[in-house]
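**User:**
Everyone, produce one record:

**Assistant:**
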Amino acid sequence: MQHNRMIGTLLSDASRERSERFIIGVAIGTFVLHLLLIALTRLGLTGLNPESEMLSGFIAAIYTPFSFILLYEVYLLVFYLPQSTTTYIAKQYEIVTLIVIRRLFKDIANLELTTDWFQKEYDLQFTYDLLTTLALFGLIYLFYRLNHARPSTPSTGSLTPQVKRFIAMKQYLAIALIPLLAALAVYSLGHWGWVAFGSGTASAGQLHDVNDIFFDDFFAVLILVDVLLLLMSFVLTDKFHTVIRNSGFVISTILIKLSFSVVGLLNAALTVTAVLFGVAILWLHNQYERLERNDQR
């Protein structure tokens, strides 16, 4: 009973809708506050360093609402974890795409419109991020198409005891993730605020890559979650193609995590490769399922 009450509180549709309204309100409010802080800093009324990464221009204010939108995507990832493993993985891909889009705003703020476009670091990064966004957007579309092409899930009344046990285990995992990720978010946002609005040059330098804020640690946690899902899936099935699919999703998440440790073209290549690998794994898994169904006829 307590388990069902907790599920209803944290992972219900009503909770998702309340979270969405709350995040939208916070995102709009913090965006306005950030714009106001930049304006007051430029007028010399705050005592903060106007050359700080997050105070250097009005475009930098877009980081703040995007950070809260990304946190909502993190909640959606946890929300869909008990319902569908593939949707949970798709949410990972959506999050990394939004991270790249957020980085685009940083690139725009540092663009140098010269004829030496491909010789400038930020201009090159802007190009990489634009192409990466398009590639990820297309790959996520393919991932959802492949997911919808799979056999439909049976109704709740016909679920086997093994399936019910697997879903219950994922629900417990999702409930455990919520306070863990909330604590990580609070710590990361606190550190971000101290670094972003610090007046020292060291503070500005620490924000060279916005991906270092929360999501580097977040994907490290997801690697552990993916491994747990892989082990838990043996409760449901030990079919070769399903084990390989879940193992492939772990590899995909690891590649995303590795992308945070590099910049430039290698970062773009690792990110796109991670999602492309996930798409390929899901496609091959579907082919195995079709072969299995044909053999059963």
User: Anything to note?
Assistant: The chain has one domain: 2-111+120-296. Residues 31 and 283 are 40 Å apart (CA to CA).
